[in-house]
Design brief:
This protein has helices at residues 34-46, 69-81, 104-118, 137-149, 163-176, 199-207, 237-241, 247-263, 267-276, 294-298, 307-317, and strands at residues 11-13, 16-18, 22-24, 51-53, 88-93, 95-96, 99-100, 123-128, 153-159, 181-185, 210-211, 285-286. The chain has an eight-stranded parallel sheet with strand order 11-10-9-8-5-4-3-12, covered by helices on one side. The chain has a two-stranded antiparallel ribbon with strand order 1-2. Strands 6-7 form a two-stranded antiparallel sheet. The protein starts with 10 loop residues before the first strand and ends with a helix. By secondary structure, the protein is of the alpha/beta class. α2 (69-81) crosses α3 (104-118) and α5 (163-176) packs parallel to α6. Helices cover 39% and strands 14% of the residues.
């Protein structure tokens, strides 16, 4: 099966067809070594997943890393498995320590380095990782269009962009007949709704963009393992702990526990199912450091929340 075919429960994303869970590659070469990463990737694909998210900057924040480690691990896996046409690979440009920003020259250099690390001749979905307001939208969109025309990129998308600049970008592409953004990667989850809902979500809905939320589990908080009085050994625990002692955090955990019990499911599955049910959302992103963490994530494909459950979660997270 190729990445453009549509098995049950896959969602359209431009010309692509993606599974309901996007596997985050930020842990590859960080908290998961190559062998662990290969095991997670194998299990993800075996479980019906086909949509893998990475970036050229992953994981430059780790002492001793330079950026590109995640793409390298993923490229080695693709080469060893021979399954390139079966998966949708998303990566990003603009945040690598050596190639920051969205000038045409930066994009041109960065894409070739990503292709080399990924050991492929095309990228399915190429994001501008962060908007660069020092560059006119016409410059980076023309550069991205050149990549599409050259066959190096199939679809383009945006992350970390304002509603105003997103609207401006879409208008430029339409006016000039260039490749247009088909997806948006916002920070969005049950304890961070205002980072997407409102003006940005309205632009996505108006133009038919698919949302692919990152921090879908709030750095692990929405798995339910971070609670008052508990200690969790995780490199990402700092991001999760900030929600533990908030009123909203406590309300959300209680609601997740209630709905999870009704479905005999994990809180993480419910949190992802809530995201998947939101307007414009095609596939939330979640990462797994071990194979044991995957089943709760993949289960989102087969779990539908009732209207009453969605209301409960909406009210708890308001």
């Amino acid at each position: 099966m190729t990445a453009t075919q549509s098995p049950r429960n896959h969602r359209p994303l431009g010309s692509l067809s993606v599974s309901p869970l996007s596997l985050g590659g930020n842990v590859f070469g960080w908290t998961a070594d190559e062998a662990e990463s290969f095991a997670v990737l194998d299990a993800y694909v075996a479980g019906g997943g086909n949509f893998i998210d990475t970036a050229d900057a992953y994981s430059a924040w780790v002492p001793g890393n330079k950026g590109g480690e995640s793409e390298t691990v993923l490229g080695n896996w693709l080469a060893s498995r021979g399954n390139r046409s079966d998966v949708v690979i998303a990566t990003k440009v603009g945040a690598h320590p050596d190639l920051k920003g969205l000038s045409a020259a930066t994009i041109k250099s960065a894409v070739d380095l990503s292709l080399s690390r990924l050991r492929t001749d095309y990228i399915d979905l190429y994001y501008t990782h962060y908007d660069d307001e020092s560059v006119e939208v016409g410059e980076f969109l023309t550069a991205l269009d050149d990549l599409v025309r050259a066959g190096k990129v199939r679809e383009i998308a945006a992350s970390n962009i304002s509603a105003k600049r997103l609207e401006e970008s879409l208008a430029f592409s339409a006016r000039e007949g260039l490749a247009r953004y088909v997806a948006l990667q916002p920070h969005y989850n049950l304890v961070s709704r205002d980072t997407y809902e409102g003006e940005l979500a309205d632009v996505a809905a108006r133009h038919g963009l698919a949302a692919v939320p990152y921090f879908a589990l709030a750095s692990g908080f929405l798995t339910g393992k971070y609670r008052p009085g508990t200690t969790v050994d995780s490199a990402r625990s700092g991001g999760a702990l900030k929600y533990v002692d908030t009123d909203r955090g406590r309300r959300v955990l209680q609601a997740l526990d209630t709905v999870a019990a009704a479905h005999e499911a994990e809180p993480a599955t419910i949190a992802l199912a809530w995201l998947a049910a939101q307007p414009t959302v095609a596939a939330p992103i979640a990462s797994a450091r071990t194979v044991a963490q995957l089943p709760a994530l993949l289960a989102v494909a087969d779990l539908a929340l009732t209207d009453a459950e969605l209301t409960l979660l909406n009210e708890a997270s308001a």
